[in-house]
C-alpha cells in the first residue's frame, strides 16, 4: 500500500509485464469531521481526470475497489488535513508474456494446412445439404395397419370414439399396492 499525503499526488508506473491492482482505499484519522464529509478520490491517466470514489469521515472511511492498471497513472485526493491509503498488489501481466506466443509457433506451413482443412470443411456441408433436400422431396407410402383399418369409416376417417378407447378408465383404476387415501400417523 501507499500513503498519499494532503496536497500531493502520487505517480505510479508499472514495470513492463506487471499490473498494479488497487483493491482497498482508506481514510486516515482526521481532526475536523466537517472538512472530511466528502473527500473525492482522483485518478489521472492519459491526461484525463477521473473521480474513482469518495470517502467520508462520518460514514464511509474505507471502500473496496477493483482497479487494474498496466500503464502510468496518478493518484490524488482533496483532503486538507489527512492522508488517504491505497492498498493493493502487483501481479504478472499474462498477456505481455512473449514466451507463450512466439512467431515460431505460427509458421507459413501451419497456415497452408489450415487453409486446406477449411476448404474441405466448406465442401462437406454442401454435400450434406443437397442429400437432405433430396430426402425431403421423397414421398413414402406406408401400408395401413390392422388397427387403423378396424377403426376407420368407409371414407378413410378415423372414428373419434376409438381414440379415447380405454385410456381414461385405466387411469381411474390405477392404485398403488398398500397405499390408501387416508393418512396415518407413523409416530408412536
Automatic annotation (TrEMBL):
InterPro entries: NPL (IPR041232). It comes from the Eukaryota. It holds the Pfam family NPL. Residues 147-159 have a biased composition (Basic and acidic residues). Residues 1-89 form the Nucleoplasmin-like domain. Residues 94-122, 160-174 have a biased composition (Acidic residues). Residues 94-188 are annotated as: Disordered. This is Deacetylase-like protein. It comes from Genlisea aurea.
